[in-house]
Amino acid sequence: MTSRNQSLFEKSQKLIPGGVNSPVRAFRSVGGTPVFFKRGLGSKLWDEDDKQYIDYIGSWGPMILGHAHPEVINTVREVAGNSLSFGAPTARELDMAEMIQKLVPSMEQVRLVSSGTEATMSAIRVARGFTGRSKIVKFEGCYHGHADALLVKAGSGLLTFGTPSSAGVPPEVAAHTLTLNYNDIEGVKTLFNEIGDEIACIIVEAVAGNMNLVTPIKGFLETLREECTKHGAILIFDEVMTGFRVALGGAQALYNVKPDMTTLGKVIGGGLPVGAFGGRADIMQCLAPVGPVYQAGTLSGNPVAVAAGMKTLELIQAPSFHDKLSASTHKLMQGLSDAAKEAGIDFCTQSVGGMFGLYFSKTVPTSFDEIMKTDKEAFNHFFHFMLDEGIYLAPSAFEAGFVSAAHTEEDIAATIAAAKKSFAKLKA
Ligand code: KE4
């Protein structure tokens, strides 16, 4: 009997490319039919066939409180009644700017946008406008949204002039993007020794979550800071995923490295479209209408989205919120690792705050190359076995997972029990 998911997917592919509004949702990496959801509450989701799942994607990070948190929903209901948008300044945007500065002190000035992509695209433009330089540096395996300059993949080797990893990106645009290997401290030093004074900025996921989870090795972030300072380049921490997730103050608080600029998204909107970029006031003063770098947005600072974000940021400041989130995430990781060990499967895990990585490999990867050597096929089978058990993991071996404050001890236990069954099927 065709499920509603299948019939919806067949229809949606006729009107929406790949049947989805964002590629990773299409299950192309893991195969099978994507799940169409209609309702979420706390840690749970229900699909169009009324099947229940424990959700470990949380909309790719925003749902840190869990789905349909009553206080967030009530706030949205209240604010929406006063109009959905003005296209003019509101006091609430000032409240959000003050909240961001309180939680991320390096963001002396901030501008709100409507997505992480807008935030990183704008931050790059400001860095180029402030320095007068064109070259930017990113790291292979890091994803910063789909702005042209950032859809660039390295060739082989430590240093390469970028070639586009997407059609439609002119080679002339990609040529300004240099790509290094994440955690390659010597590669960073070599590049800056050679052309440091031509580099406008480095943009980096201070904890990488878009090649699966890869954490910075000791000295990596510090080296980026030192080299940027020495050569007058701007250090941008893309904390769209890590902001308010790995710690209340983000990765920069966790690792005590201060970037010149930071980009935010996801949690900051609580599930509604909010992004932000900001940093040193002298840099941000380059922005129109004060300075020569143009950037704009009809719905930037949208009152309803900002209200949802403000309520979310308020609630995650509850006493020991992040300690509890880290503890439940760690407990899940430990349980999954133990289950794999019992089954004799090469599998390991790691977590940072409320985000985690699952790896079908003997050791935790610390680089893109090591990630690419993990057993993708084993992950894909595991993903589907877990999905059958009602556990919704990221549909790709190259994504991080997310736990919310709504995940209970029972959820963690049920997930570990489902993993035991799934590992047994893998062994069979
Ligand atoms: P958005 O434009 O999707 O709001 O943000 C782009 C972005 C920027 N920076 C980082 C570190 C990010 O992780 C993202 C988006 N993350 C992906 C998950 N891997 C979003 C999911 C999707 O593309 O559908």
Summarize this structure as a short list of keywords or feature phrases.
about 425 residues; alpha/beta; Aspartate Aminotransferase, domain 1; Aspartate Aminotransferase, domain 2; eight-stranded mixed sheet; four-stranded mixed sheet; 14 helices; about 15% strand; binds ligand KE4
Characterization of the model:
With 428 residues, the chain is of the alpha/beta class. It folds into two domains: 4-64 and 319-427, Aspartate Aminotransferase, domain 1 (Alpha-Beta Complex), CATH 3.90.1150; 70-315, Type I PLP-dependent aspartate aminotransferase-like (Major domain) (Aspartate Aminotransferase, domain 2, 3-Layer(aba) Sandwich). Helices cover 38% and strands 16% of the residues. Strands 4-13-12-11-10-5-9-7 form an eight-stranded mixed β-sheet, sandwiched between helices. A four-stranded mixed β-sheet has the order 1-2-3-16. Strands 14-15-17 form a three-stranded antiparallel β-sheet, with helices on one face. Strand 1 (37-41) and strand 2 (44-47) form a beta hairpin. It is globular. The structure holds ligand KE4. Ligand KE4 is lined by residues 22, 24, 60, 115-117, 120, 143-145, 205, 209-210, 238, 240-241, 265, 399.
